[in-house]
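## Example record

The block below lists the input lines for one assembly entry, exactly as stored, with component labels intact.
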Amino acid sequence: DTAVSQTPKYLVTQMGNDKSIKCEQNLGHDTMYWYKQDSKKFLKIMFSYNNKELIINETVPNRFSPKSPDKAHLNLHINSLELGDSAVYFCASSQGGGGAKNIQYFGAGTRLSVL
Amino acid sequence: KQEVTQIPAALSVPEGENLVLNCSFTDSAIYNLQWFRQDPGKGLTSLLLIQSSQREQTSGRLNASLDKSSGRSTLYIAASQPGDSATYLCAVRSNTGKLIFGQGTTLQVKP
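Predicted structure tokens for the full assembly:
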């Protein structure tokens, strides 16, 4: 049973389109994250939500809008897609609190290709 | 601004060798440090987490050390196996909760 699941796994789309990536975790975690891994494999945080509230919002274009309908879901909507948005997007979750509860569990990633 | 660097970028070793992966960070004010493994086309798997007050953590053939004052961590892999082939990522967690990653070391263990 997958702990953190993202859909779709692959997404190929044209420039200018709007697309969404969904993420769900069944671990009962309070905190969820979105990361972007670029072509050089560099992984950078984009957003973090704790109990449906935005707590981390990195310098990301406002074309990217996260939405958390409940604490088990954090979806990423991207408007007006650009070539530079092509990357692998990872969702993650953690329990929150100290110690081992900080460990983040990652989804398998969504490979977005903008043509 | 916290920066995390991993050296080497790639490493190839014969099976059975012990090896060390290095991670350095510029700001010692960290909450914890984590080592992850990433297989091609897959997500990240957490290997070890070291709290800022700890010096090392061990799990099986893996041992991670942390020297906060010098801004360094190492991941030691004993008796490497072909199944250890993957990219290893180091990440430091700031007190604000952000995980900042290095670019990873891609390890190949040859049978």
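Chain A touches chain B at residues 4, 31, 33, 40-45, 48, 55-56, 58, 90, 92, 98-100, 102-109 (CB under 8 Å). The radius of gyration of chain A is 14 Å.
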